[in-house]
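Technical note accompanying the year-one report. For the benefit of new consortium partners, we illustrate the data format agreed upon in the data management plan: each record pairs a sequence with a structure-token string. No post-processing was applied to the example shown here.
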Amino acid sequence: MINSAIASSSASAPVSAAATVKNAAAESQDRFLKLLVTQMRNQDPLNPLDNAQVTSQMAQLSTVSGIDKLNSTLEALSSSMIAAQSMQAASMIGHVVMVPGNGIDLANSKGMAAVDLAQPADSVSVAISDASGNVVRHLQLGSQSSGSVPFQWDGLNDAGQPLADGSYTFSASSQLGGVKSDAGALAYGVVNSVMQGPQGATLYVAGLGEISLTAVKQIL
């Protein structure tokens, strides 16, 4: 019985919305026709409206009605796309994603992150820093193609000593033909929840905070 009530309510909602739009258009046309009839009744007999004026006003009504219908269609399409985006985002909860960020978590002497290259590079280097901002490890990734370049850190510092598990940060640099090129930082994190906002779905990624769905580079 509850299911029937829900189904009935869901089915009636679109009809009501459509009826509202239809009624608004009908009211607009009715007001226009009343004004046109009033104008024709009160026109100057010596200078009556000609057919071109009437036709022009009718064309204006048709244009306004068409714009109203187009706006309603676009609003419905936008709502549908936002709903679909939310469902897609919800399926990502519990998954690891690659997003812009310079954090790298060390757990069980293993840390993972990635470098985002706008163009190929002859050499790519990474500098990992501790919570105090001190650089503890330099990594050389060599020559790389453009795109996302994942790398793994073994938890050792430059002296070969193991470091404590925890949160670290990193920066990346690259060179092409002896000239420094763009190198962005990408971090991995687990999607804990999804929030729906006016601009679409937003992911809450552990350790990274709120991330736009469009910013996700990879889903693992």
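Partners are asked to follow this layout when depositing records. The first strand starts at residue 96 and ends at 100.
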